[in-house]
Amino acid sequence: MLSFLGRTFVALAASLGFAASALAQDYPNRQITLIVPYAAGGPTDSIARLIGESMGNTLGQTIIIENSLGAGGTTAAGRVAKADPDGYMLMIHHLALAAGATLYPKLTYNTTEAFAGIGLVNSGPFILNGKKGLPANTIKEALDYIRTNQEKVTMGGAGAGSGSNLCNMLIQSILGVKISEVSYRGTGPAMNDLVGGQIDFLCDQSTNSMSQIKGGTIKPYAVTSLERMKDLKDLPTMAEAGLPGFELVQWHALYAPKGTPAPIIAKLSAALEKALADPKVLARFDDFATVLFPASARGPAATDARLKSEVALWGKVIKDAGGPAK
Ligand code: MLT
Question: Which of 11, 126, 179, 278 could form a disulfide with 224 if both were Cys (CB 3.0 to 4.6 A apart)?
Fold first, then answer.
């Protein structure tokens, strides 16, 4: 027999469950905001706009993109962690969400507790690129150039913990050099400056690098995956270039605030799946040299598990490298 308190609890839980499923049935009945933690025109922004448009068509509501910038992507994550868990504010993020958990000791949210994964979107390498006017023509010459000119060499980055910043940190720690990083609010503007010759190097996602490489406006030196890229077969890997074990692979995922009702997460996940089968999206992913996760391992549970394991992975890498900057 249930006590009075027990019965009250069951009745409350049932009515909350009912309210959640009523909310989900009606969802979405207005526009959805998709927060992008980096500047417009960059790689994360490009992926967000592409899948946002396709998901909006499926859901019958516009998905508007809002670039919420700063602190290596943690400002955006802090906003989404505090948002109402009703499915109307979502976020796309990448490995910086995981690295930020160790790099920023005073975060306003708990990275592994604050978000509900919707799905894994794509994964692709970074490419170490140089400005066209650099004398180096190969990765070996580029690394020699960095070693000999470390006081004056400039590398672009999108803030502590961003992919470009982690790539710069790995290069510096392996080469044992100290280089000045020019900080941007995303690699969209950083790439503009590389093309304009204002900075020397930018390690950026293939998504943002491919069209410039094909247009001959920048010099690609090496790819950060352990395998060569099928689109740029002649480009060596960083590991082949004498930086053993060098591996940095980008991955994007979609999140909602924790507490978002499961039926809403399911609707969003189904809309994401539809976007990931959309020929228009797939053709752009090909241009970006970025790939999908296997269909059986990219849903909400796989996203939560990946975030957890990447928080642990980057926690170890950053601590082994001396911990977050004080
Ligand atoms: C990064 O450096 O992590 C990204 O390229 C940032 C961005 O999407 O602009």
Answer: 126
